[in-house]
Design goal:
The protein is α+β, with helices and mostly antiparallel strands. It has four domains: 16-70, no CATH class; 83-153, Sandwich (Immunoglobulin-like); 164-258, Immunoglobulins (Immunoglobulin-like, Sandwich), CATH 2.60.40.10; 260-362, Immunoglobulins (Immunoglobulin-like, Sandwich), CATH 2.60.40.10. The chain contains eight helices and 23 strands. The strands form six sheets. The chain has a five-stranded mixed sheet with strand order 12-13-9-8-16. The protein has a four-stranded antiparallel sheet with strand order 4-3-6-7, with no helix packed on it. Strands 11-10-14-15 form a four-stranded antiparallel sheet. A hairpin with a 2-residue loop joins strand 6 and strand 7. The N and C termini lie far apart (207 Å). One of its GO terms (cellular component) is external side of plasma membrane. It is found in: Membrane. Its main location: membrane. InterPro entries: FN3_dom, FN3_sf, Ig-like_fold, IL3Ra_N, Short_hematopoietin_rcpt_2_CS, TypeI_recpt_CBD. GO terms for molecular function: cytokine receptor activity.
């Protein structure tokens, strides 16, 4: 709006009389003319009027300007044009003039809210799984007034088509196997692909050797882990001609998925009362200290059943890879085997080959003694039985032959045979030459005598 003031004055030069007459009339109505007729531009009255009018018109604008300076305003429909790059885990937006500060918030379904400070109109988050969807919020200050905008990141594709039961295992320090299963809602022509990115986000590679089932990739084998870091980002996406396939991603720490090999160079040394087992820590992907390991020992005496009768023994890695246990002599053959696990997680690896120690001589000698005792007892019993049977048989079948009695010498000697043997035997065994048998006399027939 503009304001203008135009004042015009006309004066004639028709004569002195006219001028004098006009002066008379001018004196009478000077007050009236001063209020009605406009005055020249340079007059003080016109300048005063212009000043008053300008002050009345400009005062509300001035007050409005003061109010906006106290509380800065931004267009209510202004947009930051927020964008999210999942590969870089970076959130960007359009920078506004007079932007002073701001921050970003990632709302994760499992980890909750993750906040980051703004740097040059962008925020970079650490690697997180995104297959469950996240909500991203940007809040900045423009002219000291906050502006926020929210972006919802979802997993595109049909529900239930993503790979499931995903897991990875590092073994023998240099190899890794990853496996997954086909989604329950995935079509028959689905095909999955695995991509691995380390924590520096500079090295990303696809699986070099896929494991397939009915033509569908369901696993991956890696023989070189040199490009991987402590934790890595694993992404399994899929393709199909029928429908969109959702992706699955996960963050895995290699130390947590590594299964340690058995310890090597296991030795056992024994004295009269104890045995000492020593071993060396296994080879791992990284050279960890001894305290990062724990060991489990199975010491057992070999038996026919082949099972261990002793309890398992857990030994900390701080024990200098040694274990001393009582084993007095004589000791039979014993065996020990060891396996390894992480000190924080009891995920045991494979058992080592059994190491035999002790001697078989004491056990063999005891068995031999038992056998000899049994055999000796049997032999002695048989010998006694044979002798006893022979002694009884000789007296019954072959009785002793009587000797000829000498009257001259035997009159004063006791006949022991006569004392021991009954009369019938004595008479039968010692017949006398001078003794003749006479027939008994029978009584003659005749009258009975009274």
């Amino acid at each position: 709006m503009s304001l203008s003031c135009n004042c015009h004055a006309t004066f004639g030069t028709t004569g002195r009389a006219v001028r004098q007459h006009g002066q008379m009339r001018a004196r009478r109505g000077s007050a009236q003319r001063s209020a009605v007729l406009p005055r020249p531009v340079g007059s003080p009255t016109c300048l005063l009027v212009i000043t008053i009018l300008l002050s009345l018109l400009l005062d509300p604008a001035f007050l409005l300007t003061q109010g906006h300076q106290d509380l800065p305003s931004v267009e209510p429909n202004s947009s930051l044009n927020v964008k999210f790059d999942p590969k870089k885990m970076q959130l960007t937006w359009d920078c506004k003039e007079n932007t002073t500060s701001g921050h970003c918030v990632m709302t994760h379904k499992e980890k909750g809210q993750i906040k980051k400070q703004m740097k040059r109109c962008q925020c970079t988050f650490q690697d997180n799984s995104l297959h469950g969807g996240v909500t991203l919020t940007v809040e900045v200050y423009v002219n000291q007034r906050p502006i926020s905008e929210t972006l919802v990141y979802t997993n595109p594709g049909k529900e239930g088509t993503a790979a499931q039961n995903f897991s990875c295992l590092v073994y023998n320090a240099d190899f890794m196997n990853c496996t997954w299963a086909k989604g329950h809602a995935a079509p028959d022509d689905v095909q999955y692909f695995l991509y691995i990115r380390n924590s520096t986000r500079k090295g990303e590679r696809e699986c070099p050797h896929y494991l397939t089932d009915a033509g569908t990739n369901v696993g991956c084998h890696l023989q070189d882990l040199s490009g991987l870091t402590s934790y890595n980002y694993f992404l399994v996406n899929g393709t199909s001609r029928e429908t969109g396939i959702q992706f699955f991603d996960s963050i895995l720490l290699l130390k947590e998925i590594e299964r340690y090999s058995p310890p090597h160079n296991i030795t056992v040394n024994c004295n009269e009362s104890h045995c000492l087992v020593r071993w060396e820590k296994p080879r791992t992907r990284k050279n960890w200290s001894n305290r990062e390991f724990q060991y489990q020992l199975d010491i057992w005496r070999r038996s026919n059943s082949g099972h261990s009768e002793n309890q398992l023994i857990v030994v900390s890695g701080d024990s200098e890879n040694r274990y001393n246990f009582p084993s007095p002599e004589p000791r039979g053959t014993q065996m020990v085997k060891i396996r390894t696990a992480d000190a924080r997680r009891a995920h045991w690896g494979d058992w080592s080959q059994p190491v035999q120690f002790g001697s078989e001589e004491p056990e063999s000698s005891l068995v031999l003694v038992y056998v000899l005792v049994v055999l000796g007892t049997l032999a002695g019993g048989l010998a006694c039985g044979c002798l006893f049977k022979r002694f009884l048989g000789s007296h019954s079948l072959f009785p002793p032959i009587p000797r000829i009695r000498d009257k001259l010498k035997d009159d004063h000697q006791i006949d022991h045979q006569a004392v021991l043997c009954p009369p019938a035997t004595r008479f039968h065994s010692e017949p006398r030459a001078d003794l003749r048998l006479k027939p008994p006399r029978l009584p003659l027939p005749g009258p009975l005598r009274t």
